Amino acid sequence: MSSHTTPAGPAAGPRAARRRLIRELLLVVGFFAVYKAGRLLSTDRTDEAFRNAARTWDAERFLHLPGEGAVQRLLLHGDALVTTANTYYAVVHFPATALFLIWLYVRRPAHYLWTRRVLAGLTGAALVLHLAFPLAPPRLLDAAGLIDTAQVYGPTVYKAAPAEDTLANQFAAMPSLHFGWALMLALGVIAATSSRWRFLWLLHPLLTLLVIVGTANHYWLDAVVAALLLWAALLLVPKPRTSDPDPDRGRGPDARTGPEPDQDVPVRGLPRPRSADSAVGARR
After folding, report:
1. What is the per-residue pLDDT across 243-254, written as a single tens digit (0 to 9) for each?
2. CB atoms within 10 A of CB 137
3. pTM to 2 decimal places
4. Which of 53, 122, 176, 219 pairs as cysteine with 136 (C-beta 3.0–4.6 A)?
């Protein structure tokens, strides 16, 4: 008698992939929502933020770091240049990181899990520092002698007065996650690909550094601290267990899409075990 039972395997694959994707989206969105809400806890610490800004400015001069004004003067050579820098600051940060994570999730599952954990560690540490060390950006510090390029030339993502800004914490300057995330994006692409041109992705954090400093949204030290926190996260988070820097090579049409949350992906590129029949044939 023939059976009318439908095999569960093929149907379970897409359902499991959808569940993994939904869980991953909830995890990322939830973590980001907690981070954004946590940043707002220090918005009313104005006096402390400006005292820390003066200390940071003096520390940079003590360390003989170049003045942020040198970069801003380069941007102010043309309205189009400074407007482009403001636009880069306003619109590239989140979409670039999101597209990077989506690409990793679909094409480099092992590297996605590694990157997500590193970014979570970096962002969590940044939140702690934002709360412990509120810092007014150089555009608000009179001693810096810089202008708020976004307010003057546009576009801007902040209110002119920090007290009026209910959606963003303008005193969360240190560390700069604009720079930290951009640096992790470049390092992630370099680690996950094998192209000889992959190191050109380092231009993204370099350009981001010039933009955040030139628009007077961050001090040099904000980027330095972000790089140190990222370095610590990279030391603490295990690297992806894969021997193939380009795991898409040789993948079949039924390859699993997306990683299982918080589980390491097996090493790719190892020789496939032979079946019992082939082993017997080899001995004959």
Report:
1. 544 444 444 334
2. 28
3. 0.78
4. 53
Local structure of residue 90 (DSSP, 8 states): H
* H/E stretch holding 49: helix 46-62
67 token code pair = 């003045």
Q: What are phi and psi of 257, to 5 degrees?
A: -100, 125
Residue ranges of alpha helices (H) inside 92-243 are 93-107, 109-132, 149-153, 177-192, 203-214, 220-236
Could you tell me which of 127, 150, 105 has the C-alpha nearest to residue 31?
A: 127
The separation between CA 156 and the C-alpha centre of its own chain, rounded to angstroms, equals 21
The secondary structure of residue 268, as a DSSP letter, is S
Residues of 247-278 as b/e, b for ≥16 C-beta within 10 angstroms?
Answer: beeeeeeeeeebbeeeeebeebeeeeeeeeee
Give the pLDDT confidence of 185-243 residue by residue, as tens digits: 999 999 999 999 999 999 999 999 999 999 999 999 999 999 999 999 999 999 887 65
Three-state DSSP state, 135: strand
Strand partners, 172: 135
Among the listed residues 78, 52, 94, the one whose alpha carbon sits nearest the alpha carbon of residue 225: 52
Confirm if 214 and 223 have CB atoms less than 8 A apart.
no
Position of tokens 């997306």?
258
Q: What are the C-alpha distances in Å from 229 to residues 17, 29, 123, 174?
A: 33, 22, 9, 11
Report pLDDT digits (tens) over 131-165. 899 999 999 999 999 999 999 999 988 877 776 66
